[in-house]
Design goal:
alpha+beta, flat, AS_sf, Amidase domain-containing protein
Length: about 120
């Protein structure tokens, strides 16, 4: 069924609620604490410019905290399917992340334009 295939059932379930209750507020506070005491602390304490992960493995972590991330091509698997590398950082580091990602792209020249077979 298409609804389940695209996660529409989750949206419909969310719309059926009456908003944010005590449990959801506690979860949000927990996520804020994990963000502050986790990712933000890691980046600050170690004076890091970016978190680097293969593919988009960091996307959930970045999304939860509202942090920027950029994915660029990093290679191709044994079947020729492309995969990427993710650079993530603290809020306000978008220019630095773009610079890092661009530098990676220029150094590797890994990206190949897609070819379409008819």
């Amino acid at each position: 069924e298409k609804i389940k295939e695209y996660g529409q059932d989750l949206l419909l379930s969310a719309e059926a609620t009456d908003g944010i209750g005590k449990t959801e507020k506690a979860a949000i506070l927990n996520l804020e604490r994990f963000t502050r005491d986790g990712f933000e602390k890691l980046m600050s304490t170690n004076n890091l410019d970016a978190l680097v992960t293969p593919r988009s493995y960091a996307s959930t972590l970045l999304a939860v905290g509202g942090f920027p991330g950029i994915n660029v091509p990093a290679g191709y698997d044994s079947e020729g399917v492309p995969f990427g590398i993710c650079f993530g950082g603290l809020k306000g580091t978008e220019p630095k992340l773009i610079e890092i990602a661009y530098g990676f792209e220029q150094a590797t020249k890994i990206r190949k334009p897609p070819s379409f077979k008819s």
